[in-house]
Amino acid sequence: MTTPTVETRGVPAPAGVPYLDVQDLQVHFTTDDGVVKSVDGLSFHVERGKTLGIVGESGSGKSVTSMAVMGLHTASNAHISGSIKLDGEELVGADQEEVRHLRGKKMAMIFQDPLSSMHPFYTVGKQIIEAYQIHNKVSKKAARAHAIDMLDRVGIPEPSQRVDAYPHQFSGGMRQRAMIAMSLSCDPELLIADEPTTALDVTVQAQILDLLRDLQKEFNSSIVIITHDLGVVAEVADDIMVMYAGRAAEYGSAEQLFNNPEHPYTWGLLGSMPRFDKAPTARLLPIKGTPPSLIRVPAGCAFNPRCDFQERVGSACLVDRPDLIDGGDEHFVACHIPTAERQKIWAQEISPRIS
Amino acid sequence: MTTPETEPNDVTGATAPARHAARTPDRVSENLLEVEDLVKHFPIKAGFLKKSTSAVQAVDGVNFDVRRGETFSIVGESGCGKSTTARLITRLLEPTGGKVTFEGNDITHLSDEKMRPMRRDIQMIFQDPYSSLNPRHTVGKIVSAPFVLQDVTPEGGRKKAVQALLETVGLSPEHYNRYPHEFSGGQRQRIGIARTLALKPKLIVADEPVSALDVSIQAQVVNLLEDLQEELDLTYVMIAHDLSVVRHVSDRVAVMYLGKIVEIGDRDDLYDRPRHPYTVAMLSAVPVPDTSRRHQRERIRLEGDVPSPINPPPACRFHTRCWKAQEICKTEEPLLLQIGTGPTSGHMVACHFPEDVRVPSAVQVSPVDR
Question: Which CATH superfamily is domain A17-106+188-355 in?
């Protein structure tokens, strides 16, 4: 339920300092089989009051990215390099205690599965109160009142009674609301939502997305929403980053990504999903093959074995890893096909087939 | 196909007669599967003597027919009873009441032994490709299991048949000796489909066949299912919650809410002109990958959650969340009745006050204050 007049949307204003600024982030894990390059050179930024959607398939590194921002990787296992700046403060290599202080207060996370991310032994209220009391010196009574207030804010009926309920007594949608209440209890400026609606039914999904939108308006917070559902990002995101094999394939405003996508992988994703808003088509246009192993990422462009257009470019795709380059209007694409050619392919070959 | 007057390609259903007409004997062959007043209650037992105190009314009086060669989908939110329905049709669960007829044979209460030969004709595809394949069996053993169980030796031997099946579903015959863990989710789903196809079934019940898969893989499997249907003359009953996928694959769609079918109709009728308020609300909630529509679209927000199926609301089960609900909705249960005539025949809705809004490709539905 948004009103068109209130929102200003589109390309982020370059003047504003981004609230979250990630530069050349790399997260590698050492395993017995080799180094897993889950995230390999990723840069993005989010401003206050804006929403960034990160889209990708399983194993593309989207969740690893969000965990890195939250500082949730264990240092012994994950090798993180690059820079993550939250409100100007560097998080990579920062003291664990410092990050711990920021977590919950300045940044918070909503997880995909609310049942497994809440403690089954404690009441919902207790879990919210705990988070609130860590960051705020308040009495238990005040914290409890705050918890009830938060539950009310996220639309849980009879919050003063529900505060004493256990997670298993809530339905899936209510649990997700309770988790949103928990993550918002300290008014974080950055909210990372990792597949917040994937486990939910479509009508509940709509409720949760509306809730996130309303809360964003109220708190002017930055939201990073991670999902595999292009429909969801189209609903809420200002900017979208499409990830493939640990890198950004395409990065731009939501309008650019949906109206003029330029990366063959984005085309593939759009062709793979049945369009609800268009007349039914006879066939879907899937991407051939399967996503690569992150231990042995294909040389050159990681997408080249699945790309239909690799022959047109020649060997560059097999040898050189394409950089994420601004094709104009802050629309970044990592592809060896020249910009003009890409736009031509979209307009003449892909777009008519999809719509 | 044993029955003579089969029309395997009557998939549109546009000219098909309404359900009551289809029940007359001379039309029987058109329906591969008929479900009448199907009921499944799971008793809740409590106390020392484990007396059953109440019951989860998972499926409570469901009627539908599945025509030969069509894809019939059941949609609804979690807990609406769609998966239970699938398990009742395949007789993995024993119905509490009602009747399931397959090719004219009543299979509702067949014993396991008598059901076994029927299972050649009715097969199932499961949702989770990780838990539905035995990790300790090779692909060859998994896919040939139906042959072993039914004591069938296909022409050229079982191994050859399995390899042919693997090829049919887009895997390599060399995968015969591999184990499930060596495959990705999409490939595992293909293995499951190969197993399903082994006995050349007539009806395949697919419970959320693609929802566990990535978007790009999902499209591959959807296309595969469509190809197989055409090649092998299959009939599908698809259970799904993804309304976009359902719209893509289905000929006819039934919408379930709390154990009852609230609306049933041809795909285009149902999606372009939904009549039940619940269908309207559900369709309006589907996120659309088009940013330009973001601000034009008005969503109908359903408040609250689906009530518990242990103690469902009386009369119309949707009345607690319905914005059109009036007194009659709380006292009198609406029957699933045919609505409209002409091209929309067969479109049935269970509502006292059916909507009549055209939704041109699910864009605009009337806004409702919450």
Answer: P-loop containing nucleotide triphosphate hydrolases (3.40.50.300)
